[in-house]
Amino acid sequence: MPVPLRERLYQTEAIVLRRLDLNEADRILTVYTPNRGKFNVIAKGARKPTSRMGPHLELLARTRLMLAKGRDLDVVSGAETLQPHLRLHTDLDAFGHACHYVEMLLRMTEERQENQAVFELLSSSLELLDQGIDPFAVTRHFELVLLALLGYKPELYRCLNCETDLAAERNSLSHRLGGMLCPRCVTADAGAFPLSINAQKYLRTLDRAGLASAARLPVDSVLRNELEGALSGYIRFYAERDLQSLKVWHAMDDTSPV
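Predicted structure:
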């Protein structure tokens, strides 16, 4: 016996991660939701100029969806924009970093794995970018918190090899071991990434005190490159591939006119 329509319908907030055109009128969306995690849905007719749903299904927007359970893909039957995040479509820096968040989620999360904290992290990070907050600080916070929420949080306070508290010196971040090594134990991972005292201070401030405190720390271009390189390598190890969004953003940014 067919399931009644009202029993197939459900509502959820969602952030649109990816859009794929399907035939002449439809669109497949990858969305991230608070209670169902990441999954694909189909928005029939969303590409038509007369579609009422289309404008509410923009990339990176936070939206409220009405969905009908389908055999293969759930079907969007209604949509309402909650946060359009318009700046992300006009500001190259903000857009590039937002795409990095999406790429991390697409690569590092499982289908339909509920994680409300991840949803709220994504939503708040996109909102901060939309408000014009420094993308560097927002992104380092997003990366570190997402790693923690997914079970990959790096150990920042003790040496993973000798288990002693780290001194204020040039320690190294081991991607393979999942945290810091002191200078005496750095041979435990020849590929460990050396970190300056200021880089370690920044990461610990993010971890202990959050984004607002870390954003007040002075960060010059050398320190920015060091921190991005260290975390990019760490993420690459657990994502099991290079992530491209920030590389593309850097390439575009380097060739943009002043």
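Summary: The beta strands are 9-22, 26-33, 37-43, 62-68, 74-83, 171-174, 179-181, 193-195.
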